[in-house]
């Protein structure tokens, strides 16, 4: 049953992905189609002929880039879950986030002092948090505070109108003091290839990775945002029993939580 559930969650993510790609591909094909139609005209001035040829060439390049992004995304779907203590991983994650956000964004970490184990792909977990941090950085236009907070043993609230579970989850939230998002935008951000960033700056795949990772790990991702006030993304992962591999000493070496 668990495998079937995982499979259906995977299919959900893949379904969303293919829908997004099909839509983008269609747009590109429309550009190529209409350019070729113009190019067929015998009386087309040389200057316009060159312009349409460039449009076809550029659009083919964009389609090729889309394909390679899709392949990279598909490759990331293979997860290697392991049991780890989220709290112990946070300082490493905060360091990575520091690197991507730069000196003018303050990164604050808050965590409880008890261990909190989850079973998930560790590198995907780190990637998900870095992806969210990159967005937070972009939303803060270079200045602000990013708070990385871990809460253990919380129930999973219903998200996007469904789900919810009384079982203990680890909740890792990332709050920024950035631009925030309107409701219309919020409804689309997890769609693959959805981006509001300039061509070349955004791929629209960051939050798709986060979404796919959360679902495939048996968790979920929630977002709360206020225009002009900032945004909080919360990644929920089901808590797991510590593995036999984890030595008790590792579970105890937890520094005092940040204020
Ligand atoms: P990308 O970052 O490449 O655009 P994502 O899937 O990571 O792709 O994000 C999709 C869109 O969601 C972004 O283009 C942006 O408009 C919006 N977004 C994501 N995170 C935030 C945030 N923290 N604050 C404001 N907008 C955000």
Provide an overview of this structure:
This protein is of the alpha+beta class and 259 residues long. Helix content is 47%, strand content 21%. The strands form two sheets. The protein has a five-stranded mixed beta sheet, with helices on one face. Strands 1-3 form a two-stranded antiparallel ribbon. A hairpin with a 3-residue loop joins strand 6 and strand 7 (230-238). The radius of gyration is 22 Å and the shape is elongated. The chain binds adenosine-5'-diphosphate. Adenosine-5'-diphosphate binds next to helix 4 and helix 6.
Secondary-structure blueprint of this entry?
Layout (H helix, E strand, L loop, with lengths): L1 H38 L6 H30 L6 E4 H16 L3 E6 L6 E4 L1 H18 L4 E13 L8 E12 L6 H4 L19 H11 L3 E7 L3 E9 L9 H5 L7
Parallel strand pairs: 2-4
Antiparallel strand pairs: 1-3, 4-5, 5-7, 6-7
Helix pairs in contact: 1-2, 1-6, 3-4, 4-6
This protein binds adenosine-5'-diphosphate (ADP).
Q: Which strand order do you get reading across the main beta sheet?
A: 2-4-5-7-6
Mass-distribution shape: elongated
Low-confidence segments, given as residue ranges, are 249-253
What is the quaternary state of this protein?
single chain
Give the CA-CA distance, first to last residue: 42 Å
Structural class: alpha+beta
Radius of gyration, CA atoms, in whole angstroms = 22 Å
**Count of helical segments?**
7
Give the mean pLDDT: 86
Bound molecules: adenosine-5'-diphosphate
Report the biggest beta sheet as strand number plus sense, adding barrel if it closes. Answer: 5 strands, mixed
How many β-strands, per DSSP? 7
The H-and-E topology, N to C, reads as: HHEHEEHEEHHEEH
- Percent of residues in helices: 40-55%
Beta content: 15-25%
Organism: Methylobacterium dankookense
Domain Histidine kinase: 20-241
Protein name: histidine kinase
């Amino acid at each position: 049953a668990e495998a079937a559930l995982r499979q259906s969650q995977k299919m959900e993510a893949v379904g969303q992905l293919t829908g997004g790609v099909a839509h983008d591909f269609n747009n590109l094909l429309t550009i190529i189609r209409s350019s070729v139609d113009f190019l067929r005209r015998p009386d087309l001035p040389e200057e316009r002929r060159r312009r349409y040829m460039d449009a076809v060439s550029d659009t083919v390049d964009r389609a090729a880039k889309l394909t390679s992004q899709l392949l990279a995304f598909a490759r990331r779907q293979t997860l290697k879950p392991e049991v780890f203590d989220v709290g112990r991983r946070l300082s490493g994650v905060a360091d990575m986030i520091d690197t991507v956000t730069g000196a003018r964004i303050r990164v604050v970490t808050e965590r409880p002092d008890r261990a909190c184990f989850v079973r998930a792909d560790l590198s995907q977990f780190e990637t998900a948090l870095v992806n969210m941090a990159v967005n937070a950085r972009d939303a803060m236009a270079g200045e602000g505070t990013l708070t990385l907070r871990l809460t253990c043993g919380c129930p999973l609230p219903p998200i996007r109108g469904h789900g919810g579970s009384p079982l203990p989850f680890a909740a890792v939230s990332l709050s920024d003091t950035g631009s925030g998002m309107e409701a219309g935008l919020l409804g689309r951000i997890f769609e693959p290839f959805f981006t509001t960033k300039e061509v070349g700056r955004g791929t629209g795949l960051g939050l798709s990775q986060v979404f796919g990772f959360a679902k495939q790990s048996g968790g979920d991702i929630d977002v709360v945002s206020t225009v002009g006030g900032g945004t909080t993304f919360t990644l929920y992962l089901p808590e797991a029993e510590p593995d036999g591999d984890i030595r008790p000493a590792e579970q105890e070496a937890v520094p005092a939580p940040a204020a």
